[in-house]
Structure formats: structure tokens, C-alpha cells
């Protein structure tokens, strides 16, 4: 039987690098995927979509969040909720950024991630 509680630190997880200047550490629960992203100044996670709903929390720095044709700047403490299947992407501000993304339902790999625009150059 699995333990009823698991805990740990993102810092203890091995980082991956999905795009230049972006590092991620991921935890999977039974029903959600929680990922911490550390993003270098001007680095971009390109426009993409996936079937999961995404809740994004900005922990530090700022990001330009583009959803469809709309872009807004989100700073520390800000959050967004993006429905599954909606195109979105982010670019870190001049100080970089740290965000946490919660995807539901759980995503086990990037097989369902559809990149709709290549990563742009850093600002």
C-alpha cells in the first residue's frame, strides 16, 4: 500500500531543460502534474496547447503570458487559469521568473503537447 502522504522539495528533483533558458522540476500526483519552472531573463516557452487545464502561479520575477492573441504581464503573486486545448506561451521578464504550473488531469509526458510556434529569441 502506498503511503497516504508524500512530500519533498523541488530542489531535490533533477531538472530538465525543455527549451533554452528554461529549467523544470516535476512532481506527479494521482490526478495532477505540478511543475516548477525557473526561466532565464527573456527566455520563452513557445506557444503551445495541451488537453489539460493549467493553473499558473508566478512565484518570482515576471512573465508575459500570451493566450491566443492576448498578452498580459504577470508579476509575483499573480496567477492564471487556462482551459485545456487553448494556445498559450510565456516569456520571462528582464529579471527572469520562477513559476509553478499545475496541470489537471495528470500529464505523464510531453506527448500531448503541441507546439504551435517555435521558441523566439531571448529579448
Summarize the structure.
Helix content is 0%, strand content 54%. By secondary structure, it is mainly beta.
- Count every helix, treating DSSP H or I runs of 4 or more residues as helices: 0
Q: How many strands, which pairing sense, and closed or not: the largest β-sheet?
A: 9 strands, antiparallel
- The shape, in one word, is globular
CATH homologous superfamily title: Jelly Rolls
Rounded radius of gyration (Å)? 14 Å
CATH class descriptor: Mainly Beta
- CATH topology heading: Jelly Rolls
Low-confidence stretches are none
Q: Which second-level CATH architecture applies?
A: Sandwich
The averaged pLDDT comes out at 92
Strand content: over 45%
Give the end-to-end Cα distance, rounded to a whole number of Å: 49 Å
Derived structural class = mainly beta
User: In sequence order, what are the helices and strands, one letter per element?
Assistant: EEEEEEEEE
Number of strands: 9
The residue fraction in helices comes out at under 10%
Domain count: the total is 1
Describe this entry's structure for a reader.
This protein is mainly beta. It has one domain (16-107): Jelly Rolls, CATH 2.60.120. The protein has no helices and nine strands. It has strands at 16-19, 22-28, 33-39, 44-49, 53-67, 70-74, 79-82, 88-104, 114-115. Strands 1, 2, 3, 4, 5, 6, 7, 8 and 9 form a nine-stranded antiparallel sheet that branches. The protein is globular, with a radius of gyration of 14 Å. The model has no long low-confidence stretch (mean pLDDT 92).
Amino acid at each position: 500500500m502506498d503511503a497516504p502522504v508524500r512530500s519533498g522539495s523541488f530542489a531535490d528533483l533533477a531538472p530538465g531543460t525543455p527549451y533554452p533558458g528554461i529549467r523544470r522540476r516535476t512532481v506527479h500526483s494521482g490526478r495532477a502534474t505540478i511543475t516548477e519552472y525557473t526561466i532565464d531573463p527573456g527566455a520563452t516557452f513557445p506557444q503551445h496547447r495541451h488537453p489539460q487545464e493549467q493553473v499558473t502561479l508566478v512565484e518570482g520575477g515576471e512573465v508575459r503570458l500570451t493566450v491566443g492573441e492576448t498578452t498580459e504581464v504577470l508579476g509575483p503573486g499573480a496567477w492564471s487559469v487556462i482551459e485545456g486545448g487553448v494556445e498559450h506561451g510565456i516569456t520571462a521578464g528582464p529579471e527572469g521568473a520562477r513559476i509553478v504550473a499545475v496541470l489537471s488531469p495528470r500529464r505523464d509526458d510531453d506527448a500531448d503537447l503541441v507546439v504551435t510556434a517555435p521558441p523566439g529569441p531571448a529579448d
